[in-house]
Amino acid sequence: MSNSKSNQSTPMTPTAAARIQSSQAKANGGQVIKGSFAARAQSSAAKNSK
Questions:
Q1: How far apart are CA 9 and CA 31, in angstroms?
Q2: What is the pLDDT of residue 49?
Q3: Which InterPro entries would you find in this protein's record (predicted)?
Q4: DSSP states of 1-50
Q5: Per-residue model confidence as pLDDT tens digits over 8-45
């Protein structure tokens, strides 16, 4: 059995997405790869903030 919360999700916030994107950019010489988790997180945060 896993420790994940089944049937519950936390929406991606702009702050969390920025933190993820910043971390990936630092690891990749300032680049965020198209289609990466960081890019998808940013997109999700934008949709959730509307």
A1: 28
A2: 84
A3: IFI6/IFI27-like_sf, LEA_SMP_dom
A4: --SS-TT---PPPHHHHHHHHHHHHHHTTT---TTSHHHHHHHHHHHHT-
A5: 788 999 999 999 999 999 999 999 999 999 999 999 99
3-state secondary structure (DSSP) of residue 4: coil
Other C-beta atoms closer than 10 Å to the C-beta of 24 total: 18
Token duo for residue 18: 């920025």
Residue showing tokens 């198209």: 34
pTM value is 0.74
Length of the chain: 50
Q: What is the model's pLDDT at position 50? A: 78
- Inter-CA distances, 17 with 5, 6, 7, 31, Å: 20, 22, 22, 15
